[in-house]
Amino acid sequence: MAQLLTGRKRIASVSGVALAVVVGGAAFAYWTQSGSGTGDATTGNIDPITIVQTSTNSTNLMWPGGPSVALSGTYTNPNDAKVYVHQVYVKIDTGWEAQADTSKPKCTAADFTLTGNVGSLATGVAGIGVDAEILANDTSTWSGLSIQLDDHATNQDNCKDVTPGLTYWSD
Predict the structure, then answer these.
(1) Are 25 and 17 a contacting pair, CB within 8 Å?
(2) CATH 2.60.40 fits 50-170, yes or no
(3) Quick check: 113 and 62 in contact, CB under 8 A?
(4) Residue range 70-101, pLDDT digits in tens
């Protein structure tokens, strides 16, 4: 009888191992299959930065042939992402002129010279290299531009007490 029990124990033991192998093997079985699909991702756009001249020349007034007056200011990034500013440019507003005395020549943008550190720009345009990253919703400063009233050896009375409008932009 002892041998019979031993034999039954062996059968039970071998059956248990076989069942574990079968169950364990089934737990690791799977199929693979390739597939395909489509999707997309959209980028946003940003608002332009705001460039403001903060310098004034109320104490350093211009006269024909006098020294240039420094121009400086800020640029503000209104976006939720950082932006990169390569250069800041300035020009006298298109069509700007003054002629208080019609018997004398007009004062025009051609009476002034704008300067910066960027060469080869269109006539009447000056620029400065900035090459800076402006953080999201942040303001930074710029400087390095200037304006001068040229001496044309002609009557420039209409350039007295004028404030030519300046337009700024960046890339």
Answers:
(1) no
(2) yes
(3) no
(4) 999 999 999 999 999 999 999 999 999 999 99
The domain segmentation of the chain, as residue ranges, is: 1-32, 50-170
| pLDDT tens digits along 132-167 | 999 999 999 999 999 999 999 999 999 999 999 999
Give me the amino acid identity at 26: A
Compute the radius of gyration of the chain from its Cα atoms: 39
DSSP letters along 99-163, please? -SSTTSPPEEGGGEEEE-S--S--TTEEEEEEEEEE-TTEEEEEEEEEEEE---SS--GGGTT--
Residue found by looking up tokens 């930065």 in the block: 49
Contacts of 10 (CB under 8 A, 6+ apart): none
